[in-house]
Design goal:
Protein name: DUF1801 domain-containing protein
Shape: globular
Largest sheet: 6 strands, antiparallel
Structural class: alpha+beta
Strand content: 15-25%
Number of strands: 8
Number of domains: 1
Pfam families: DUF1801 (PF08818)
CATH architecture: Alpha-Beta Complex
Organism: Sphingomonas canadensis
Helix content: 25-40%
Length: 141
């Protein structure tokens, strides 16, 4: 069985964020890092080559696959700033007030931070961080 490729890499977060070529995405990355560090009280850590993560949890699927992953994180991708948060059930009212975004099960896609309500984003990150504290295994796969 192949191991999880997304694990703490030891790469410097500052160097990673400073190397983001798009100036707006770079600035947004630094802003989200500061927001997540403030909310979590955890230092930013590189998970794999492109995810800035905070905290960690261990997961184990019914299939036997297991590993560790950051509790929350983000990546300044070329098309979007992607936030890796816990799922969004019950967050609809907040998401309706967030501003322009897309989402999938555990990802929130933002084009630019200046297009979202930062107080709402902060609340989403806070709720996700608090909800992820109870994780001890992932869904069956």
């Amino acid at each position: 069985m192949a191991g999880n490729k997304t694990k703490p890499s030891g790469t410097g977060v500052d160097a990673f964020l400073d190397a983001v070529t798009h100036p707006g995405r770079r600035a947004d990355g630094h802003a989200v890092r500061a927001l997540m560090e403030r909310i979590t009280g955890e230092p930013a850590v590189m998970w794999g080559p492109s995810i800035v993560g905070f905290g960690s949890y261990h997961y184990r699927y019914a299939s036997g696959r297991q590993g560790d992953m950051c509790r929350i994180g983000f990546s300044p991708r070329s098309a979007n700033l992607v936030l890796y948060l816990r799922s969004f059930p019950g967050y609809e009212a907040l998401l309706d007030r967030l501003g322009k975004h897309k989402r999938s099960t555990g990802c929130l896609y933002l084009t630019r931070l200046d297009g979202v309500d930062m107080a709402v984003l902060e609340e989403l990150v806070r709720r996700s961080w608090e909800a992820s504290g109870d994780i001890d295994e992932g869904p069956a796969r």
